Amino acid sequence: MKYLDEYRDRAAAQKLVRRISEVVTRPWVLMEVCGGQTHSIVRYGIDRLLPEKVELVHGPGCPVCVTSLEMIDRAHAIASRPDVIFTSFGDMLRVPGSRGDLLGLRSRGVDLRVVYSPLDALRIARENPTKKVVFFGIGFETTAPANAMAVYQARREGLANFSMLVSHVLVPPSIAAILQTAGNRVQAFLGPGHVCAITGFREYRALAAHYKVPIVITGFEPVDLLRGILMTVEQLEAGRAEVENAYERTVPPDGNPAARALIYEVFEVIDRKWRGVGSIPKSGFKLRHEYRAHDAERLFEVDAIATEESGRCISGQVLRGLKKPCDCPAFGKDCTPRTPLGATMVSAEGACAAYYQYGRYLEGVS
Predict the structure, then answer these.
(1) How far apart are CA 152 and CA 135, in angstroms?
(2) Category of 218 on φ-ψ map: left (φ > 0), alpha (ψ -120 to 50) or beta
(3) For 46-74, how does the pLDDT look when each residue is reduced to its tens digit (9 = 90+)?
(4) What is the spatial distance between Cα 248 and Cα 246, in angstroms, rounded to a whole number?
């Protein structure tokens, strides 16, 4: 396929691998930020093509994986109400909360509907004026414009029966949190291409300068990723710490100004708790005061909920790059996509799910 095959070209990929091997002289640990990048790395075995001195660890770039347990439990509490139609993207349905998942609620008769856009939830609200329709708004900056548009449109239409349970998280503060983690090993980052298509990459420059780490904005195909890795290793070997863009065909320096304007019209920045990581300052969005009539957390008063996380799941350490899925004793045994202990095994973008899908749980099994 034109514009795609060239980024999966075997010869081009092999050339980049050879160049990385020529450049690297010391051990380096790189983290890819985006879950889509993790999936591609494992799918194509990119981490195994690299010289031993270059190690890839996997970051918190899966929005399903980092949605806090408290927020999942709030979703359960709201969805269980008889006057509610709860709407969500499908990958949230099997994320384990303290007492099961949303799919289990639907099997018990809860009116829970999978949608493909927050605008679908608006349509459901128009069609069901006697019901309270709630959309579970999760994601990084990538999905924030569409979610902001839904709330903006609901207010414009006076659609009083539509609200959003907002659990948006932001990438730059998570990078800072990883670098501040005790025992951190990460020395450079492959930046999130799709997020930067919205936000641009100027704000990453302060991170690179302050923490003295290279950040290379990278795409998702094998050649994209290998080029980003090469540029990152070249910086590390030269002692540089800059932001570079290896995804020029998609990411301009300032991203999408119209999308950013809509985001900040509807949302404001707050501290946000990340599953397996903890609270990160100024790392999330909530609805602005002007849009409080569509804020599900306020409307349903679901703050005081006791949570209980699995004591066997190490997804928090995986998300911070401290461990890999295969380091977990439960991986591929008690924890599988059918019986997940943690969110990193549920989402297709989760590191544990990617390792499982491509058979790494079978390694060492006779």
Answers:
(1) 14
(2) beta
(3) 999 999 999 999 988 888 888 888 899 99
(4) 6
β-bridge mates for residue 335, sequence order:
331
Contacts of 255-264 spanning 24+ positions with Cβ under 8 A: 255/196, 255/197, 255/198, 255/199, 255/200, 255/201, 256/145, 256/197, 256/198, 259/144, 259/145, 259/198, 260/198, 260/199, 260/200, 262/145, 262/148, 262/149, 262/152, 263/141, 263/144, 263/145, 263/148, 263/198
Intervals of CATH 3.40.50.11740 along the chain:
64-168+255-298
The highest-level CATH class for domain 64-168+255-298 is alpha beta
Question: pLDDT tens digit string along 22-50?
Answer: 999 999 999 999 989 999 999 999 999 99
CB 257 within 8 A of CB 229: no
Is the distance from CB of 315 to CB of 65 less than 8 angstroms?
yes
Provide CATH 3.40.50.11750 ranges for the chain.
11-60+171-245
Nearest alpha carbon to residue 111 among 132, 142, 92: 132
CATH number of 11-60+171-245: 3.40.50.11750
